[in-house]
Design a protein that fits this description.
It is a single chain. The two termini are 46 Å apart. By secondary structure, the protein is α+β, with helices and mostly antiparallel strands. α3 packs across α7 and α8 crosses α20. The protein is extended and about 100 Å long.
Length: 606
């Protein structure tokens, strides 16, 4: 068996490199520092530097793993990997510190049991571990138990170390946290009451939005005072705004004609017997999904395909190959193999060969030349002026975005983010090449890191002040309504004099339920449960406004019996919910207390 493992060693090594931090391979893949930053490392975690070389190795491994999983990885997904890897590294370092401080360890027996219950990723598909086409645990356990395994494959020792030093201690931390979750009798009684005790009550709600005023109500002095008092809340990261123009890589009519003629030639060769339709599809079709099966689309009825394709397919006799048919996907030649009718519906079994309607090299060269001419005009006359004077492009801009974020409206275009934060305002980029278009960009505006200027955040402040004024007025109005209610005026009469007020009656409802106008588990319903029959509440701060409640009837109050099956089931449910969130809350607190400095976005902009 050990000798047979050589058959899967290359695959296994890729899996291990990706899943566990190990090996010495360094692939310089994707790091694109602009030269403008001063950082010399990927970041610091509690004062410890994470070297760029080490971090880029982790990024390369993760990209390798992603490429193993997906044949065509979108560039934007590659762009997300560095920050994902950074978050994983932060988690690893923080947990490692906790494990060390708690002196957690694992025995050899625990490591073996873990590996036995959790086969190494990818190994369950290896043929040597299969019996009748299924993964055979007995064979795998025998391999784990063989001493020569660890001599032949030293990386198994690294896996054992990872399980012993990180995975199992991490599981023990999680188990300790979950074990500490308990539900006190008071908590259980309160939860029981919220779900079971009911009341019938009427309410009136005063919404702040009904008291909003015009901008004129907000003075310049109010804005300045708000800005001074809350300046820390207007801190911003470094940001950039890019002008851009897009030149789509579209096929010309001559390109379409050339694609049409290519498919006609393929059809002639098939009809001449040079090769079968199936072989032609495997070699020539751009439809990766069906090409591997000789262009086979299986059986389908009307409505399953795009209209142009469907019309051609259902017009063909079995065995006949169509002329090239144009659709939104490109040009197709279609061969119907069989036709049947089931319950009045005609179905066909067909194959096709697709050629995508792509621009030719000559078209792309001409488009590239036009882009260079446009860029030269932008350098001479200014980006916006040249773009506005060009008949076939539209000037657009991304709007402000922070370093590390994807440029809005532009999307992922390799080189755009690096240019945005590495060049001066007004500079014009080289031609940026993406799969579907050429782009030219220019820095429209750059904002430094720090407090945003008052004029930039003024609209935001005005809206905040209008909200504050509206809520103040709404509360004053609610206070006046409360006085009327206390004096005996019915809520119906109060609402009749002001249609803007929201009123309603809730019948025999627990707090933990959804009520129109109030939502789920509202403060208003909770207040009703704490009042006596006929009693009126004070002013309740309730989701964008204020409410007042009067209890009409207190339903039967159920006594809480901790020993009852219902109470025990509720306590168990509450405990399980607490266990599910315990580890996450603990880790968030651990992370918030750590000193973490990330420089990732300075080095991986595109």
């Amino acid at each position: 068996m050990i000798n047979k493992m050589r058959e899967i060693a290359p695959m296994m090594m890729i899996v291990i490199l990706v899943v566990f931090v190990g090996g010495t391979i360094f692939l310089d893949w994707g790091m694109n520092a602009t030269g403008q930053g001063r950082a010399t490392n990927a970041g610091k975690i509690n004062g410890r530097e994470v070297s760029l070389e080490y971090f880029d190795r982790l990024v390369s491994m993760e990209r390798m793993r992603l490429q193993e999983q997906m044949q065509d990885v979108p560039p934007s997904q590659y762009r997300m990997i560095p920050n994902q890897v950074w978050n994983q590294e932060v988690s690893r370092v923080l947990l490692q510190d906790v494990i060390k401080s708690m002196k957690l360890s694992s025995t050899d027996e625990e490591v073996f049991e873990y590996l036995k219950r959790n086969p190494i990723p990818g190994i369950d598909t290896a043929s040597i571990f299969m019996t009748d086409g299924r993964f055979d645990t007995t064979k795998y356990v025998q391999w784990l138990s063989t001493p020569q395994t660890y001599t032949m494959y030293p990386w198994m020792i690294e896996i054992e170390n990872q399980v012993r030093d990180q995975i199992l201690p991490g599981q023990k931390i999680e188990a300790l946290l979950k074990a500490g979750v308990f539900v006190s009798p008071a908590e259980a009684a309160h939860d029981f009451a919220m779900r079971n005790n009911k009341a019938t009550f009427e309410f009136v709600k005063v919404e702040g939005r009904n008291f909003r005023r015009d901008d004129a109500e907000v003075s310049d002095n109010m804005v300045r005072e708000f800005y001074r008092a809350n300046q820390s809340s207007f801190m911003q990261d470094e940001q950039a705004d890019l002008y851009f123009v897009r030149l789509p890589k579209a096929a010309t009519p001559s390109d379409e004609q050339a694609t049409y003629e290519e498919l006609k030639d393929i059809k002639k060769q098939i009809e001449a017997g040079e090769y079968t339709f199936e072989i032609a599809a495997q070699n020539e079709s751009d439809d990766e999904g069906s090409a591997v099966n000789g262009g086979d689309l299986g059986w389908f009825g009307r409505g399953a395909m795009v209209p142009e394709f469907e019309a051609a397919a259902f017009a063909l006799e079995p065995g006949v190959i169509s002329d090239p048919v144009k659709s939104a996907f490109g040009f197709h030649i279609i061969k119907v193999e069989e036709r049947t009718e089931e319950e009045g519906e005609i179905r066909v079994k067909a194959r096709h060969i697709l050629r995508k309607n792509l621009p030719s090299d000559e078209t792309l060269d001409n488009l590239s030349d036009k882009a260079e001419e446009l860029r030269a005009a932008m350098v001479r006359n200014g980006f916006a002026a040249a773009a506005n004077n060009h008949p076939s492009v539209t000037l657009d801009s991304t709007g402000l975005f922070r370093r590390g974020a994807q440029p809005p409206r532009l999307g992922f275009v390799s080189g755009a983010a690096s240019f945005a934060f590495g060049r001066k305002q007004g500079e014009v980029s080289d031609i940026l090449d993406s799969e579907n278009a050429f782009y030219i960009v220019s820095v429209k505006e750059r904002l430094r890191r720090g407090a945003a200027p008052l004029e930039r955040v003024r609209p935001q402040i005005v809206e905040a002040l209008k909200d504050t004024l509206a809520m103040q007025e709404a509360r004053a109005y609610a206070a006046a309504v409360l006085e009327k209610v206390k004096s005996g005026t019915s809520l119906e009469d109060i609402a009749a004099s002001n249609p803007a007020l929201i009123t309603g009656t809730v019948t025999d409802a627990p707090v933990m339920s959804f009520q129109p106008q109030l939502g789920y588990a509202s403060k208003t319903a909770s207040a009703a449960l704490s009042l006596s029959e006929g009693q009126v509440s004070g002013i309740i701060d309730e989701r964008g406004g204020f409410s007042i409640v009067r209890v009409l009837n207190r339903g039967e109050t159920r006594e809480f019996d901790p020993a009852s099956p219902e109470a025990q089931q509720l306590a168990s449910m509450t405990k399980n919910q607490g266990r599910q969130t315990a580890y996450g809350e603990w880790y968030r607190n651990l992370q918030s207390g750590a000193k973490i400095v990330s420089n990732v976005d300075q080095f991986y902009l595109d």
